[in-house]
Amino acid sequence: MKFIKKLVCLMVLLIAIMATTQALLIEVRPITQQDLAAAVELDRQISFDFFEPLYALGYPEFSFGQHPHDFLERELLEDAKEFALCIEAQGDQRLFVAKWSNQIVGLILFHRKDEILWLDLLLVDAKNRGLGIGKALVYKACAFWKECLYCDVCPFKRANSDTLKFYEAIGFKKLGDGPSDRINAYGERYSDLYYYYRLDIAAIKPMLNNVSSS
């Protein structure tokens, strides 16, 4: 019995070491033209694997919840346009990708408005979650515009508990419902659909010291 317990502990330790090693090998950097097709494909994959059931289960009273596939197809077209614009890396919006073993395993789309860094889209491939990729992407974005004081995001309220736990685990605090004066592309108020989370970037400054801003 003691041997079995030791073996189980050893296996758990090996898995943890492998996960840490993989996380250390993750490269986070601005998107390039060579990354575009893979980034668009990752967006499509996660949209239909994750967001389609979220829309349908969490928001059946809204039009996007009743016809999630159609709405996602429209969103994906807009995402692809934004991704392409970010390749030139000009203006106040950026897109970073996370690469491991020569594959795109995550991405983050973000923009700056005054002293606030807004997260527009954060995606991590399902097979590679739990390795710190999402956290690395968020911290890379926070390190990019050093003059920003806060990092804000509005995640969906319903059918989205894992995402909410993720943001809370890396330091975000829930301020309440989404801004009532903001309207999404379909005419719904943010306060009806989203929570409002904020990360005080000063609180994670020590962790950003080792994160390159380029």
How would you sum up this structure, described in words?
It is a single chain. Helix content is 46%, strand content 22%. By secondary structure, it is α+β, with helices and mostly antiparallel strands. Helix 5 links the parallel strand 4 (116-124) and strand 5. Helix 2 packs antiparallel against helix 4 (68-86). The chain is globular. The termini are far apart. The model is unreliable at 6-23 (pLDDT under 50).
The number of helical elements comes to 8
CATH architecture: 3-Layer(aba) Sandwich
Query: What is the helix fraction of residues, given as a range?
Result: 40-55%
**CATH topology description:** Aminopeptidase
User: Please, what is the average pLDDT?
Assistant: 88
Biggest sheet: strand arrangement: 1-2-3-4-5-7-6
Principal-axis shape equals: globular
Largest sheet: 7 strands, mixed
- Taken together, the total number of domains comes to 1
Q: Which range does the strand content fall in?
A: 15-25%
Low-confidence stretches: 6-23
Question: What sequence of helices (H) and strands (E) makes up the elements?
Answer: HEHHHEEEHEHEHEH
> Which radius of gyration do the C-alpha atoms yield?
18 Å
- The secondary-structure class comes to alpha+beta
Give me the count of strands.
Answer: 7
CATH class: Alpha Beta
CATH H level: which superfamily? Gcn5-related N-acetyltransferase (GNAT)
Cα(first) to Cα(last) distance is 52 Å
